[in-house]
Amino acid sequence: MRESTDDWAERVSNLPTKPSRKEATEIVREVYESAQKDLDDQRAQAEFEREE
Q1: Residues whose CB falls within 8 Å of the CB of residue 34, separated by 6 or more in sequence, listed in order
Q2: Could you please report the per-residue DSSP string of the chain?
Q3: Which of 6, 8, 27, 28 is the most exposed place for a label (fewest CB within 10 A)?
Q4: What's the structural domain count of the chain?
Q5: What is the pLDDT of residues 10-38, one digit of tens each?
Q6: Cβ neighbours, 10 Å, residue 19
Q7: Distance, CA of 30 to CA of 26 (rounded, Å)
Q8: What angle do CA 35, 22, 31 make, to 5 degrees?
């Protein structure tokens, strides 16, 4: 599931305590992967539109 910036901000701000290094790394990894998927979708859409 892809999450928006607001979703990620909400998720991080609702953490009950400061995340451990491992938890912080996992959050960053998930944010990065989500952003990459969004960029891939945007590129694919732009390529599709160019081919039409």
Answers
A1: 2, 3, 8
A2: ----HHHHHHHHHT-SSPPPHHHHHHHHHHHHHHHHHHHHHHHHHHHHHHH-
A3: 6
A4: 1
A5: 888 888 888 888 988 888 898 889 889 98
A6: 14
A7: 6
A8: 10
Give the residue numbers spanning the domain of 11. Answer: 5-51
Cα–Cα distance measured from residue 23 to residue 21, given in angstroms and rounded to the nearest whole number? 6
Asked whether the whole model's pTM tops 0.70, one would answer: no
User: Do the beta carbons of residue 25 and residue 17 sit within 8 Å?
Assistant: no
With CA atoms as reference, report the closest residue to 12 among 23, 22, 21, 2: 23
